[in-house]
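Researcher: Here's a chain I'd like modeled. Treat it as a single chain, no partners, no ligands.
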Amino acid sequence: MSSFEYHRPTSVADAVAALGGGDEATVVAGGMTLLPTIKQRLADPSDLVDLSGVGEMKGISEEGGAIVIGAMTTHGEVASNPVVQAKIPALASLAGNIGDPQVRNRGTIGGSVANNDPAACYPAGLMAMNATVHTNKRAIPVDDFFTGMFETALEEGELVTKVSVPVPDKAAYIKFPQPASRYALVGVAVAQTGGAARVAVTGAGQDGVFRVADAEAALSGSFSPDALDGVSVDADGLNSDLHGSAAYRASLVMTLAKRAVAAANG
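Model: Modeled as a single isolated chain. Structure tokens:
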């Protein structure tokens, strides 16, 4: 492993300053993706800015009809938090089924969101629930935040500080996990708020998380699994690999969407 300067700031301002102090500086949250990448010599940062000491980026609260989650809050903390469990049980369930206990106790919501892995669970859940990603500079609606595979709207020197998730009337997330990695081969999140429905898919798209407009229109008329009869997803643009063809993933999207609606309806 190559050498780098290690920084452990205690405030967002100090983290941003440290991030701007090196030619190839990068931040580390839980390290679930970055550290293996460095070990494999696929990344060679000049400076490593550890966010674990930034207290203002941790914690969960309820504010104005939304659940606000600090970027450095772990998956395990989201899953076990009584406020999340009571207000958005679908989000608690999503977090509680990420990876394994080691990943859930180290990985963070901010790290997952900023990394935007195309098979990660949070992007679909947050997109379906119409979340807002807050940074040290601005608030970004989730539809504008995720821009492509491993790509986001984050600019140089910009850090995710928290995520605000409006409390939906109903929501659920169902994934078909790839057995070895526990990432979603396909994952589908559905949410209903005020009669309007949103459906987001992870694991299937070549460009990462995406919404399904036809399914949303059908569910906005009737939020029931039967409303999705006849709705399909085009296999063009979906992943195809040894785990499943694009056509298989397209079929799986609608199967999981129906299961998610049934789960959301209790």
